[in-house]
Specification:
Helix content: 10-25%
Distance between the termini: 32 Å
Structural class: alpha/beta
Oligomer: single chain
CATH class of the largest domain: Alpha Beta
Largest sheet: 10 strands, mixed
Shape: elongated
Strand content: 35-45%
CATH topology of the largest domain: Rossmann fold
Order of helices and strands: EHHEHEEEEEHEEEHH
Radius of gyration: 25 Å
Length: 256
């Protein structure tokens, strides 16, 4: 879960006649990266950049003279801030057994960014495989019962038409929203791109990534642990979205 808002300015420099034809293919597809910013973030960005370049069948050049494209990334005003997160779960009581089962709907920041994870029931949670399940409550597109029905089907179980035809029932279905305290990293980022085809582009904007959700998390939010782990992934603080956009712009120009 990360947010980058970029403003882009582009200029086209006309290369000397025949320059493109004379450029070696490996140089044309090589990129020289220069990063100005905090040491730890710069190292993560460089690693993410190398991975993204390889995915696009290009190369990172150590020598700027051997690169057809140049990227200069500047990170400023990097700082950590407290960030509220919300785990939203569907909960129900399993009958027989009177055991509470939780299904993670989403983990969100309350401002539109969301991570969702498909939830798979484990055998020790009380529902043997191939069980049929009856779900209490009114049907409808946005009702808790309909949401829970979707989760049950995703988990590989069958829905029974009536309680008497079911191996298990799920009752007392409710939506629960649990507040979590996370830490986000914010910064200003500027990328200056000089592409092998002569195009020069400047991207600048604000970056925000979630880098930590302290343990232990609330027991109520345990069903959303997989989604919380995604948010806590260190890769989210490596400016991966910045890297993806930079490399995509270069790759797009080289295909023209």
């Amino acid at each position: 879960m990360k947010v980058v808002h970029y403003i882009m300015a582009t200029a086209l420099l006309l290369p000397c006649p025949g320059a493109q034809a004379q450029a070696k293919p490996e140089k044309r597809r090589s990129i020289y990266l220069q990063i100005n910013g905090p040491e730890e973030s710069s190292a993560r960005l460089r690693s993410a950049f190398a991975e993204e370049v390889a995915k696009n069948h290009m190369f990172v050049a150590e020598d700027p003279k051997k690169a057809g494209s140049h990227v200069n990334v500047t990170i400023t005003d990097e700082h950590k801030v407290d960030q509220a997160l919300y785990a939203e779960l569907l909960k129900a009581t399993l009958v027989p057994g009177d055991k509470t089962i939780s299904f993670c709907q989403r983990v969100s920041d309350g401002a539109g960014s969301t991570v969702t994870t498909s939830y798979k029931l484990r055998p020790d949670e009380g529902l043997p495989s191939c069980s049929t399940v009856w779900i209490e409550g009114e049907s409808g597109p946005e009702t808790p019962a309909e949401m829970l029905k979707k989760k049950i089907l995703e988990a590989g179980f069958q829905i029974a038409a009536s309680e008497k035809d079911a191996d298990f029932s799920l009752r007392d279905i409710r939506l629960v929203k649990v507040a979590l305290q996370g830490t986000a990293i914010e910064a200003k980022v500027r990328s200056e791109l000089k592409v092998a085809d002569g195009t020069m582009t400047t991207l600048s904007g604000n970056f925000k990534g979630y880098v930590a959700v302290p343990e232990p998390i609330s027991t109520e939010a345990e069903g959303c642990r997989n989604s919380i782990r995604q948010i806590s992934d260190p890769a989210l603080s490596s400016y991966g979205q910045v890297v993806s956009l930079d490399v995509a712009l270069i790759a797009g120009h080289l295909k023209k």
